[in-house]
Amino acid sequence: MYNQVQKRRHVLRPDITGWAPVNGRNAISWNQKFDFDVWYADYMHFLVDLKIIRLTIKKVLVREAISSTTSATMEKFNGNS
Domain limits at 36? Predict the structure, then answer.
């Protein structure tokens, strides 16, 4: 179950990249992902989008932060404790 702050990430349309993926992808926690998504929802701007595109290209080429430390992909989100 999402809390009120986490629900704000749903104002964003699904996309192939974003602020959370370029800042850690599967190597960051769900809480960090929510924080990045909510930050982006609050500060959407064309220049931030350009930075996301640039960082996405870099992440793909370097193959960085693909796996979490505890599994091959990100753990399932089980709601807030």
Answer: 18-62
Asked if residue 2 is part of any domain, the answer here is no
Residue 75 inside a domain? The answer is: no
Q: Distance between CA 58 and CA 77 in Å, rounded?
A: 27
Q: How far apart are CA 34 and CA 10, in angstroms?
A: 10
Region 13-40: what's the mean pLDDT? Answer: 87
Distance CA 3, CA 53 (A): 29
Contact residues for 54 (Cβ-Cβ < 8 A; gap 6+): none
Question: Which of the given ranges, 3-12, 15-24, 43-52, has the highest pLDDT on average?
Answer: 43-52
Res 81 pLDDT > 60? no
